[in-house]
Amino acid sequence: MERKMLISSISYLFVLLFLYTAVSKILDYNHFKNLLRYSPLLRNSASIVAVFLPAMEILLVLFLLNPRSLKWGLYGSFILMILFTFYVGYMLAFVSKQSLPCSCGGILKQMSWRQHLIFNIAFTSLALVGIWLNRKQFREEMERITKATYA
Q: Other CB atoms closer than 10 Å to residue 87's CB: what's the count?
């Protein structure tokens, strides 16, 4: 039971994070899109990313809230956090500190880029833990069903 609670807690943290950031980006869409245009990695695809990213975050929220798609929500969260982490790492390593545009939503834009990197690494790790716990939970349930069926 503790494992289920931990998986749920991790899922709900991602739901809060993605819902909050998606809504912030949507409410301030023009500003978000304009900031993406200043990113050396995203400037050519800013319009696409500005629509795709909040849509992906909302889709992941829906996956995370549905027990049948939780596994895919956790995997998607992990992949998205890896992408965010590499993006922040790249920006810190290769872009002038004076020209680092932050396109994050809400209070997350108050973080420094280094704090963002640590935050992203922590959430990437949380997604990995959620995947591992969910797989372990699934295996144990399958073993229980198999034993009950053949007992």
A: 17
Q: How far is CA 58 from CA 15, 23, 113, in A?
A: 9, 9, 24
Residue 86: name the closest of 128, 120, 49, 111 by CA: 120
Extract the runs of DSSP E, i.e. beta strands, from the chain. Answer: none
Largest Cα–Cα separation, the chain: 67
* Cβ atoms 101, 38 nearer than 8 A: yes
In angstroms, rounded to a whole number, what is the distance separating the alpha carbons of residues 29 and 3?
38
pLDDT in tens, 119-150: 999 999 999 999 999 987 766 666 666 666 66
DSSP three-state, residue 111: coil
The three-state secondary structure class of 148 is: helix
- pTM equals 0.85
Q: What angle do CA 36, 76, 137 make, to 5 degrees?
A: 155
